[in-house]
Amino acid sequence: xxxxxxxxxxxxxxxxxxxxxxxxxxxxxxxxxxxxxxxxxxxxxxxxxxxxxxxxxxxxxxxxxxxxxxxxxxxxxxxxxxxxxxxxxxxxxxxxxxxxxxxxxxxxxxxxxxxxxxxxxxxxxxxxxxxxxxxxxxxxxxxxxxxxxxxxxxxxxxxxxxxxxxxxxxxxxxxxxxxxxxxxxxxxxxxxxxxxxxxxxxxxxxxxxxxxxxxxxxxxxxxxxxxxxxxxxxxxxxxxxxxxxxxxxxxxxxxxxxxxxxxxxxxxxxxxxxxxxxxxxxxxxxxxxxxxxxxxxxxxxxxxxxxxxxxxxxxxxxxxxxxxxxxxxxxxxxxxx
Length: 337
Ligand SMILES: NC(=O)c1ccc[n+]([C@@H]2O[C@H](COP(=O)([O-])OP(=O)(O)OC[C@H]3O[C@@H](n4cnc5c(N)ncnc54)[C@H](O)[C@@H]3O)[C@@H](O)[C@H]2O)c1
What we know:
This protein has about 325 residues and is an alpha/beta fold. Helices cover about 50% and strands about 10% of the residues. Helix 4 (about 115-120) links the parallel strand 5 (about 100) and strand 6 (about 130). The site of nicotinamide-adenine-dinucleotide has 27 residues, from helix 1 and helix 3. Nicotinamide-adenine-dinucleotide binds next to helix 1 and helix 3.
């Protein structure tokens, strides 16, 4: 039994808490919001996001970081936009060398940094591990068999996460390709939004398969240019996560896209989902980064025009279909425009 501190008491933080408690760990859940802590302590259930799944009485839920002293592992489960500030809060009291894992998926707005780089800046004395893969909170909490990757520049830290969190319902593979794991996890949310748009429009299966397949191709193109290994995009954090988010009603990105496909304005659709729709900010960051790096990302480009500039979806689809002819497998001389 180990002491684990989970920072972020939303859908995934709660799911990880319930699962890890079931497999014998002592769990503390932290949230910066007193009203959220009060609600969870009162209901012992996340009624909005994980209804019907009890949070065991001995899972401590708090706004204080006092429990940190005994923690052997800290896990950040906050929206990607809150990773830097949460890591900075943690840095004030976390003992050095305690591994800090993170399940958030996104790129930092403005700097275009992957979240492990953000965390390393704020927590330079702690090894960082990124956990990613097809892992909806609703299913992790219910014990459905789930597989993820724990990626780190420190093999020992990745294996600590594997040792502590892996159980009969949650299988963890380790990887040293942090960059690949992060680009796959962050950018698949854009494709999931677009897949939802297609579903909202009532498009065909061919179109969705095309979006997913060409989507992972351009995610890999950017990822490889940023230092990732190409094969990572064929793994759990790449195609695995893309499949689950584009197909599942648990995906908030896909549900947001469905609303947009049905005619709701993008910003209004994001507000209606009312939870972290990571694909929306990520579309803007990826669009800007791709332009800066001169990487060809036609789907991200059209998603940006639709989501941020009000471009008609039919016109975006037509522009994608009528582009100049290309090879399916682009070689290096085709990577840039
Ligand atoms: N929900 C899932 O199935 C799932 C699965 C894998 C990864 N993720 C990723 O995990 C991250 C968290 O997702 P979630 O579904 O738990 O989100 P959520 O919106 O349900 O919960 C996030 C929690 O983070 C905390 N938080 C919110 N804003 C904060 C702030 N400004 N500062 C500090 N803490 C703050 C709160 O406790 C909040 O409940 C996201 O990046 C998401 O992409 C989610």
